[in-house]
Backbone:
């Protein structure tokens, strides 16, 4: 009873803080209206047919493959795409497809068409690289998957970061998500790397919000960065700061979100949905918080027993998964939540059709080791060793998701 009333008081206090945040901010995300949504959906379908025709040529194969891709999209993001955001002239329905229209979007589409039409002949190019560009981080987060690599001598010089980008762009990468450590501690190099990568790939920065000031958000934007993913693991500041072991990181993250929105970046929150978070019924208040902040997306990440969580009993139970899936469908499909950010929950498709990791995306950790994804450490080679041997080419091999398997 007492705990319940303390928790209610914290929520009320937080509600007031959110209102205050809302009155200070200058920019928020608004999904496009119904007419514009029809225009975007139609435009994307026409793009799909157009590239299917010129890539696959045979009418029966075109129709079969287009149907497969439409089905795959529904299985990944849910049956209804009711939220589309326009940022700097491009439309975004999630943060893992490049914005439409763009060359990166077209390349990614053609690649996916070939992958489905010729599954035996075309194993497919890389699409997305998560690249941890620094080992430095001022935080000590409970769930950190880079824990064992942090705060050691940097692996890559700025020139080497650019060489790594070049290597994976040759393999087809149309998206880079730059993380760390905390990538914003290396803002000067980060800006240079984005400026280099921007012509062939869409660039996103994954940050705790540290050092994401107004000036730095504008520097990212000016360099060609398209968006940021800001980790906020609780809407109650004290709980977020405790989870990340940093007394001001909640306020810095809020400042960072507002700065990124004002700079014209796509903004997603990312939250580690622990058992405590889910058992405390914090999902819906968190979405209210995200809506008030005005972000475009919210990403739900399940805790995994790696890094700082290694050896701990953190994996979610069946009833938590049911709770997350039902929430994902409700927020994205129920008209009552049209004004809320779109929810990205990878566990939904991973448990039904497999995982994109390894076949379409890889994770280069801050030591240069290459894995299927940030959460499944499946080291296959070290890209730093490769660039230093002057070979400049990496094994074109799949490093499959060991947990959920591969999406066809
Ligand atoms: S999770 Fe990210 S912000 Fe937190 S300690 Fe690890 S690298 Fe730093």
Residues:
């Amino acid at each position: 009873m007492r705990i319940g009333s303390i928790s209610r008081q914290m929520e009320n206090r937080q509600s007031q803080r959110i209102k205050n945040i809302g009155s200070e901010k200058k920019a928020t995300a608004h999904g496009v209206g119904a007419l514009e949504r029809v225009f975007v959906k139609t435009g994307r379908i026409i793009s799909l047919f157009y590239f299917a025709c010129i890539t696959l040529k045979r009418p029966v194969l075109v129709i079969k493959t287009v149907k497969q891709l439409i089905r795959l999209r529904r299985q990944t993001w849910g049956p209804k795409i009711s939220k589309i955001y326009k940022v700097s002239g491009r439309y975004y329905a999630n943060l893992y497809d490049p914005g439409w229209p763009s060359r990166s979007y077209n390349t990614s589409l053609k690649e996916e068409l070939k992958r489905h039409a010729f599954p035996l002949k075309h194993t497919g190019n890389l699409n997305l690289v998560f690249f941890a560009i620094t080992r430095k981080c001022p935080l000590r987060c409970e769930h950190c998957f880079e824990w064992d690599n942090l705060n050691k001598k940097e692996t890559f010089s700025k020139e080497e970061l650019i060489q790594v980008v070049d290597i994976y762009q040759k393999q087809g990468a149309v998206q880079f998500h730059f993380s760390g450590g905390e990538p914003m501690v290396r803002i000067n190099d980060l800006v240079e790397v984005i400026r280099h990568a921007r012509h062939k790939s869409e660039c996103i920065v994954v940050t705790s919000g540290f050092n994401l000031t107004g000036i730095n958000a504008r520097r990212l934007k000016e360099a060609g960065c398209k968006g940021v993913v800001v980790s906020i693991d609780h809407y109650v500041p004290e709980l977020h700061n405790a989870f990340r072991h940093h007394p001001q990181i909640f306020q810095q993250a809020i400042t960072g979100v507002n700065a990124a929105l004002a700079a014209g970046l796509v903004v997603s929150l990312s939250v580690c949905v622990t058992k405590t978070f889910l058992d405390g019924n914090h999902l819906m208040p968190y979405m209210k918080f995200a809506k008030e902040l005005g972000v475009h997306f919210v990403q739900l990440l399940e805790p995994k027993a790696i890094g700082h969580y290694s050896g701990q009993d953190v994996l979610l139970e069946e009833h938590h998964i049911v709770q997350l899936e039902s929430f994902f469908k409700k927020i994205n499909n129920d008209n009552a939540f049209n004004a809320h950010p779109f929810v990205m929950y990878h566990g939904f498709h991973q448990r039904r059709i497999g995982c994109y990791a390894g076949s379409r995306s890889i994770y280069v950790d801050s030591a240069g080791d290459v894995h299927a994804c940030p959460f499944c450490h499946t080291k296959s080679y070290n890209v730093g060793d490769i660039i230093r041997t002057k070979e400049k080419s990496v094994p074109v091999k799949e490093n499959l998701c060991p947990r959920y398997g591969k999406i066809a």
Remarks:
- The pocket of iron/sulfur cluster is lined by residues 137, 139-141, 144, 146, 180-182, 208, 244 (CB under 6 Å).
- Residues 21-25 have pLDDT under 50 and may be disordered.
